[in-house]
Amino acid sequence: xxxxxxxxxxxxxxxxxxxxxxxxxxxxxxxxxxxxxxxxxxxxxxxxxxxxxxxxxxxxxxxxxxxxxxxxxxxxxxxxxxxxxxxxxxxxxxxxxxxxxxxxxxxxxxxxxxxxxxxxxxxxxxxxxxxxxxxxxxxxxxxxxxxxxxxxxxxxxxxxxxxxxxxxxxxxxxxxxxxx
Length: 180
Prior knowledge:
The chain is α+β, with helices and mostly antiparallel strands.
């Protein structure tokens, strides 16, 4: 569908509250559909991965960021630019390995749980925000960085903060054609 000449394209942004409520309804429905928390966690991760694969294009187009030269720069970019851009929060970043390939994103406030007090006792192993892990993993994969992304701490489970662990597994080699 084309737009009339001279008319600006509208930005399709939804309010954060609507997004958080919709996300909560999605998780509630998944909990009804699946008996095991592991199945819900897996489904959220897969959904997040699909979002991350597509979201990276928007991120690169709108953030005006340069190519990261290290895992540390990449972790900082995720925290300081991506989280701020899409969730309105800036987690702190800490490196948790001597090799420099393991990082933690520590959120003092997680906007996805604004309307959630605590997890029900029968859902103790539910990772409510596992969608975020999938988003990060999918986006990183699209820029040729394989990573394992997991929740290490969760306020919904009584921890002091929400902590997402990112372990960069390897840097995919660029397939460059050699000149002969």
